[in-house]
Amino acid sequence: MFLVNWFFDVLGWIGIYKKSAKIVFLGLDNAGKTTLMHMLKDNIMQIHEPTLHPTMEEIEIENIKFNAFDLGGHKEARRLWRDYYTTVDAVVFIVDVADQERLEESKKELNSLLSCEELRSVPFLILGNKIDKKEAVSEEELRTIMDLSFTTGKNEKSKNSELRSIEVFMCSIKNRMGYKEGFQWIGKQLK
């Protein structure tokens, strides 16, 4: 098995073989999900209207082709999340770290997702977005508020198949920083 994995890793490294994965972008409204999706796809920074209907984009990052679903984050959209995430390979949960009044609401939604049986073995990338704003909480504060002291490690693949892969990366989608490392981490988590 080691030889087969090594072979496909080498093919991916030289660009002949590409992994593919289905991911969902989740989080409260106005966290940056749609902006990130379009930044990754088109490399264009735009302000977007709130997502009213689920959308899907094909995105390629580091030899991985992602079918990325932006499901929206307003209360009505959150009721539909369950319909999409039962067959995903990874969850990207985006938190607006500058909107301190809604961090508890984000925590509640994240905890609901983490307790879902269908997502038990799915890696979770937590992106703390909007670190460019002065009112943004630090990574340490976000980990405390969201109760995320049990993460995998930024340079690690979870070695214990019983433990969920989960990690926090702070970013500014607007300033194009921090999220690339998060997607590199997801690439390591995917089989």
UniProtKB/TrEMBL annotation:
User: Which residues make up the binding site for GTP?
Assistant: 27-35, 73, 129-132, 173
For molecular function, the Gene Ontology terms on record are: GTP binding; GTPase activity; metal ion binding
Q: Where in the cell?
A: Endoplasmic reticulum membrane; Golgi apparatus membrane
GO cellular component terms listed in the entry, alphabetical order: endoplasmic reticulum membrane; Golgi membrane
GO biological process, any: vesicle-mediated transport
**How is this protein situated with respect to the membrane?**
Peripheral membrane protein
Classification via SMART domains? ARF, RAB, SAR
The record's keywords, sorted A to Z, are: Endoplasmic reticulum, ER-Golgi transport, Golgi apparatus, GTP-binding, Hydrolase, Magnesium, Membrane, Metal-binding, Nucleotide-binding, Protein transport, Transport
Recorded protein name is Uncharacterized protein
